[in-house]
Amino acid sequence: xxxxxxxxxxxxxxxxxxxxxxxxxxxxxxxxxxxxxxxxxxxxxxxxxxxxxxxxxxxxxxxxxxxxxxxxxxxxxxxxxxxxxxxxxxxxxxxxxxxxxxxxxxxxxxxxxxxxxxxxxxxxxxxxxxxxxxxxxxxxxxxxxxxxxxxxxxxxxxxxxxxxxxxxxxxxxxxxxxxxxxxxxxxxxxxxxxxxxxxxxxxxxxxxxxxxxxxxxxxxxxxxxxxxxxxxxxxxxxxxxxxxxxxxxxxxxxxxxxxxxxxxxxxxxxxxxxxxxxxxxxxxxx
Length: 286
Known about the structure:
The longest helix is centred in the C-terminal third of the chain and has 23 residues. The chain has a seven-stranded mixed beta sheet with strand order 1-3-2-4-5-6-7, with helices on both faces. The radius of gyration is 18 Å and the shape is globular. The chain is of the alpha/beta class.
């Protein structure tokens, strides 16, 4: 596959220019690389890379607030978005292999992996592969998902009839209610959605190993798929530290108040003076 097929740059305008400018200023190119963090996001079942577009403004605000350079990237799965003509993937391990290969081809940078729901499985397996290759991420963040091997993880949803599956996803907030009754949209989205859920359930039922990197787990207080007790299962998936954060909201809490989530997620991983201090994002950007 051509480079960039899986991993897409979503960083706001001006970030790339600031990074290039940093290499021409008083600091060296090596210093600029040390101050660079790539936030790589894996979307939920049926989600596109553009699912993380709402994170662009908070990331832009963070870049404007200080010398750190944060690049926002997101994964586009086969069968989704502009890859709609491709066969959806059915195996998390194969997906992670492709993603990690593309990440390995990027310029050296501190990598923060974030995965929501199904994306948490993809991010976890990608972290395992990066770690095995000697290039582990700085931190793995999982959201809205029970850990692989958790006996309470949802089962059997991949086999639901079309109408029931569509209704289930709509009730969780994954489909805009104004579009939920559009038959063409349902026909377009359902095959990839079902493939994602199938891959999720297969992977979650047959977990393998652990990671050595720290895990940050974000859960929505009103999420029926991954409630507050879901964080405990992730402790068995890392030999590092586990931090669990319970946020207000439902299954898609991560797009409801991204500013606060990003501040917590990037805390200590920005590679700049004072990076061990909490990250303070400025107020809303006009």
